[in-house]
Amino acid sequence: MEDKLAVLVIEDDQSIQGIVEDALIEGGFEPAIAASGEEALILLKGGAIKYRALVTDINLLGRINGWEIAKQAREIDPEFPVIYMTGAAADQWASHGVPNSVLLTKPFAPAQLVTAVSHLLNAGNPPSAPA
Amino acid sequence: MEDKLAVLVIEDDQSIQGIVEDALIEGGFEPAIAASGEEALILLKGGAIKYRALVTDINLLGRINGWEIAKQAREIDPEFPVIYMTGAAADQWASHGVPNSVLLTKPFAPAQLVTAVSHLLNAGNPPSAPA
Amino acid sequence: MEDKLAVLVIEDDQSIQGIVEDALIEGGFEPAIAASGEEALILLKGGAIKYRALVTDINLLGRINGWEIAKQAREIDPEFPVIYMTGAAADQWASHGVPNSVLLTKPFAPAQLVTAVSHLLNAGNPPSAPA
Amino acid sequence: MEDKLAVLVIEDDQSIQGIVEDALIEGGFEPAIAASGEEALILLKGGAIKYRALVTDINLLGRINGWEIAKQAREIDPEFPVIYMTGAAADQWASHGVPNSVLLTKPFAPAQLVTAVSHLLNAGNPPSAPA
Amino acid sequence: MEDKLAVLVIEDDQSIQGIVEDALIEGGFEPAIAASGEEALILLKGGAIKYRALVTDINLLGRINGWEIAKQAREIDPEFPVIYMTGAAADQWASHGVPNSVLLTKPFAPAQLVTAVSHLLNAGNPPSAPA
Amino acid sequence: MEDKLAVLVIEDDQSIQGIVEDALIEGGFEPAIAASGEEALILLKGGAIKYRALVTDINLLGRINGWEIAKQAREIDPEFPVIYMTGAAADQWASHGVPNSVLLTKPFAPAQLVTAVSHLLNAGNPPSAPA
């Protein structure tokens, strides 16, 4: 079981990058940091590494935001675990988030991130229509 | 308790309209039918009647589809209960649906619709970020 | 399977009594109406009939309210299904309700009541501490 | 939407058969009754009709019981909705039931059955490993 | 993201205090310890620090117990995350706990506490009436 | 609160054993490793130590597999938390797993295991029939 689970992180603020990276490594995941949505999409679609979850800020460098990245990730894999991190855009989650996603409002504790990623991965195939 | 709970239904197929209408009435709700997304938005924003839930087809007459209507309803009220009905677009739910919504794949039984509406209403304020 | 499941209902408003009674009967339950909390406690503790769920208004005739009745029902049986019905006291649920209970805000549709009772009964032994 | 959702019911007690059949029809489903597990398996595997859910007694005529039928149904379709009905074997559910199934203890109200079937169908693809 | 999330802990047993404090710090939270319910209420109502969750023993020094503190915290904020820790009073949770709370039975592992706090925080606005 | 919660782990691959052991210890649990299902049953039934959860591989040395061990553990205690770990047998979970269990697909991150164990323990008495 040497293969670690790769988690794609999109965050340009270096201090938060560091916290997220440390938390995921300590939880046993392998974070890959993308600085912009465009870069993240190349990684997601490249297929060299199979990412298992997306952890994304909302307001990103470049032209695409976190809501849009998550939609594209779900078009590739309808069950892709998605965690949004945001300080200001939390109230948009109800209209712009994808189903079965988690929103972490900044500031959050590293344990919240690790619990959210673990929980979504453990849930396996999330319901396509929870009722 | 004479006031009935108004449920906004967007569906242009008359046979499904009838089934949905009958099911909601039998469950004790008061359905209001809109034939297009544009008409539905006028009703939602008009405020003459306070709708308590949205039941919408995906492919609608006019220029806006069901995914878009639901987003606009959630911008007005982040906790608005949303039920999508679709035959062909079910695989888009994971990327285009709003969180805490229910997808009914056609054909469905009337009891599924009534259970879904009841369940979302009973849940009160749905979690802004379920984890 | 002739035995019907008895549901104890505490409600003094006769019009709501009627709606609740009809909804439960149509769902296949056997409602027993108590007009006050004191009367309800006598029925719950008497043991002549084994009630399977409690549906209670908050503001009751007599000295005990619905929050208190539910607590006493849970002291007898920690897994007793509890549904509160209220028009004015909904915001007290978070501090005065018992865990794993459902709050129906008046007005509600009969289907919401039947779904709530069914859902709590189907869940069997509700978690003693959901996490 | 003329196609009704077929639900396979395995129950040999005629009075319960009648109650289950009536409840499903009123909920808008199309029940198909099998008197034994062997007969049910032929129907499930025959493929002439696509069943959408299984409602089964535990102690069946013939050599296979309800626990076993449910396992075989899940081997054909890992997300097949399963509802067990039992009077005496409820305590075996935790060790013999399949994940994401519902157990109804006899006697139950018809609304509990309809809510359970609707709920499992609405959940779409149940999680392969809920956590 | 330098701000840590403050978690109010009410526990007078020093050995458990230490375990809870260490677990929360390692999870990235900032625990504040109160030795009595009275002290905790002063902190909650003082407003100098915005606490994000309550972790409380049931039997406290002073006149108010953990069940009562949680009710008061929920009256201030209906969505306040509440975790009870208890050795002896677990069977009272069903009648005295607040909805959407978690009960940890002593002894528990530190990871259970961190998971419970994270889970409740991630759930954002817990449902006001889950059904 | 010196007593640690014992978790029974059945795994013969030494590298995975080590990862599971380390993760549980860091989470504050006390893992006990059994190399075969037969050995695990002796420990479970021996009663010298009260195990609080089972973490088991599917394909085991000896004649009994992980699906079978979990069934036997649930016959002793219907609410026993069960976590399966598997690389190859994940698609059998829907038909061979016990209700309210978690499946971890190898490779998994240590945090997923700790979250799953914590989550099941926090849930206390899991529903005997979730609906």
Provide the descriptors you would attach to this structure in a database record:
homohexamer, 131 residues, alpha/beta, five-stranded parallel β-sheet, 5 helices, globular, disordered C terminus
Describe the structure.
Six copies of one chain form a homohexamer. The first copy, chain A, has 131 residues and is α/β, with parallel strands linked by helices. Chain A is 39% helix and 21% strand. Chain A is built from five helices and five strands. Chain A has helices at residues 14-26, 37-46, 66-76, 93-96, 110-122; strands at residues 5-10, 29-34, 51-57, 82-86, 102-105. Chain A is globular. At the C-D interface, helix 5 of C face helix 1, strand 5 and helix 5 of D.
Strand line-up across the major sheet of chain A: 2-1-3-4-5
Biggest pleated-sheet summary of chain A:
5 strands, parallel
Q: Which sequence of SSEs, written as H and E, runs from N to C of chain A?
A: EHEHEHEHEH
Strand content of chain A: 15-25%
Chains forming the largest contact: C-E, 31 and 31 residues
Helix content of chain A: 25-40%
Structural class of chain A: alpha/beta
Shape type of chain A: globular
Give the overall pLDDT of chain A as a whole number: 91
Low-confidence stretches of chain A: 125-131
- Rg over alpha carbons of chain A: 13 Å
Question: How many helix segments of chain A?
Answer: 5
First and last CA, distance of chain A:
36 Å
In total, the number of strands of chain A is 5
Question: What assembly state would you assign to the polypeptide chains in this entry?
Answer: homohexamer
